[in-house]
Amino acid sequence: MLTTGKAILFLIALYFVIKWAVKNGVAEAYTEITGEKTKAEEEIEEMMNEDKKKREEALGALKSRA
Question: How confident is the model at residue 12 (pLDDT cuts 50, 70, 90)?
């Protein structure tokens, strides 16, 4: 049995899922059309590079101790 409260919660959740999907679809289409990365993609790439450097430094420190 579906109550009004459950229906409202379901519609709110559905709204955010659709909003997220549209946002990602637009960003992907922008990248394909222009060949440029979006700001979010650049930020993610920068974070990944920083993490990679930290891992390499930590691994180097461990190797120097051995």
Answer: very high
